[in-house]
Amino acid sequence: MKKMKAFILLIIVLLIAGCAQDTWKSIFTEKLEGMGYTVVEHEVDTLTRVIRSKEEEYKDIHLALFWEVQEFDISKYEGKTIKYHIYRVKNHPVDLMTELAESTELYLGVIDGEYVGGYSVPYKEGVLFLGGISSIEGKSIEELTGLTYPEWFQKWSETYE
């Protein structure tokens, strides 16, 4: 009898988890299509990471660039887990600017059941694009900060190196 109860509980948990995933898929698909993008693919897997303090995250220039294009202040979420839902879209500024890209990969972040922002990168099967992290809308670090990259780097160096 205990095994049957445990099995039923497991089925309920899996159903709830599946419904939550489908809910985000529906919400994000609608959001992305509303932005004018064509959703090509949705990854079933997600990318998850724990956000450390801004001071720790920004010590690495690559992570600093990564966080700079996100729509939220990471200080607010220190110690929290962010789960990125991954989509591939067409008609995005990133794939329209990069001839080699087949589409754009979007990482939409959720913390504690709330969408907080994300980032975009060019995508082509089997190709690694270096650099190129942009906001969800395809804006560069220069557009988002109002600084040229050398100016931003100088400010970063003075603060974190």
Report on the structure:
The chain is α+β, with helices and mostly antiparallel strands. The chain has one domain. The chain has 6 helices and 4 strands, in the order αβααβαββαα. Strands 1-2-3-4 form a 4-stranded antiparallel β-sheet.
Quick recap:
With 161 residues, this protein is α+β, with helices and mostly antiparallel strands. Helices cover 42% and strands 26% of the residues. The termini are far apart.
> Count of DSSP helices?
6
Biggest sheet details: 4 strands, antiparallel
Taking all Cα atoms into account, the compactness measure Rg is 18 Å
- The number of domains is 1
H and E order: HEHHEHEEHH
- Classify the secondary structure makeup into a structural class: alpha+beta
Q: Which parts are unreliable, with pLDDT below 50 for 5 consecutive residues or more?
A: 3-20
The beta-strand count equals: 4
Shape field: globular
* Average predicted confidence as pLDDT: 84
Which strands sit side by side, in order, in the main sheet? 1-2-3-4
Question: How far do the termini sit from each other?
Answer: 61 Å
Helix share, percent: 40-55%
Beta-strand content estimate: 25-35%
What are its keywords?
alpha+beta, 4-stranded antiparallel β-sheet, disordered N terminus
Walk me through the topology.
Blueprint: H1 2-34, E1 38-50, H2 54-58, H3 61-68, E2 81-90, H4 93-97, E3 103-111, E4 114-123, H5 141-145, H6 149-160
Antiparallel strand pairs: 1-2, 2-3, 3-4
